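Morning run. Coffee first, then this:
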Amino acid sequence: QSRFGANERALVRPESTLTPKSSSRTARSVRRDSTSTSPQPTIEPDFAVHEPANPHDTMKAIRVHAVGGPEVMHLEDALDPTPGPGEAVVRMEATGVNFIEVYQRKGLYRMPLPFTPGAEGAGAVVAVGDGVTQLRVGDRVASETLTGTYAELAKARAERLVRLPDGVGSRLAAAVMLQGITAHYLATSTYPLHRGDRCLIH
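And here it is:
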């Protein structure tokens, strides 16, 4: 958990990756000399090249393929989310890290594998689906109901995204959503506080 502190900045955009020879394809080429009928092999560096089918549609994301400790989280290429009707895609600028993600990673709360953890975060809208009228591309928003915020991009129902005031930064917004909503319902719904009441904040 220490690798991903609360409100950590989003990961960098993906680049081509190089992995050891044991991977699927080894980069080699053979060059023929124009004056000879025999091939003269030129061996290129012995590494495997892994590139997405369409790099423009991929992002970096933390993926969990098996339950366990922090070591089961891996930085991988993943497909960009696309917004469905009533949804919006947000480029993450800050991500909230909460205990529920630890429980999910450990298998205490079951999740379909593999998955990208995270539901709380803040950033800028980069795409909206059909029927979305309350948001537009470029709006700065935050939510605690995003899908997979341990990534560069995440999506949510547009109606669950809160537009941020100019004076509120992404880190503050990502940190305050879940805790702020919890404090609000405890102080207004669970027990409405009144002048003269005493409460404990911890």
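Residues 1-55 have pLDDT under 50 and may be disordered. Good start to the day.
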